[in-house]
């Protein structure tokens, strides 16, 4: 019959599982990656093949979602804003290339030469949002065709591309708009 020992009885050699894992991760990063991949592979296989395990995991996820819903929403919102801003900074800054608008809420990422969703068949390029911004930040998308534009200039760019020169133009007066939008 196994005997339970206290930390003091083990003379300082006791490590909890989480402590051991942290130490192993910091001391052997490459071995840890291999270990983590094997564990994840086993979990995925078990999830696919064992219905009871799959149901238990689904219940755990639902429970966590209910418990941490607000905290997760706040984190997700902050992460989206950080990633969006970093993507724009990667493309040259948080300022419209046409009119100079610098209000982050008004800015978008614009394709200089629109390719359209139907013609974009690359499996790595997503159509927008955090996944697309992440690809820009990590250099996995060709940024030569991308620029930062405000919503108004982006719409005007679309109209010019679609119908030719429209005679419209946008003027951004930063001093006048300093007090708010």
Order of helices and strands: HHHHEHEH
Helix/strand-derived class? mainly alpha
Structural domain count: 2
Low-confidence parts = none
How do the strands line up in the largest sheet?
Answer: 1-2
Distance between the termini: 73 Å
Residue share in helix: 40-55%
Outline: elongated
- The average pLDDT score comes to 82
Q: Over the alpha carbons, how many angstroms does the gyration radius reach?
A: 25 Å
Number of helices: 6
Largest sheet: 2 strands, antiparallel
Record field, number of beta strands: 2
The portion of residues forming beta strands comes to 5-15%
If you had to describe this structure to a student in words, what would you say it looks like?
By secondary structure, the protein is mainly α. The mean pLDDT is 82. The chain is built from six helices and two strands, in the order ααααβαβα. Helix 4 crosses helix 5.
List the helices and strands and how they pair.
Elements: H1 17-27, H2 29-49, H3 51-67, H4 69-90, E1 107-111, H5 130-137, E2 146-150, H6 151-163
Helix pairs in contact: 1-2, 2-3, 4-5
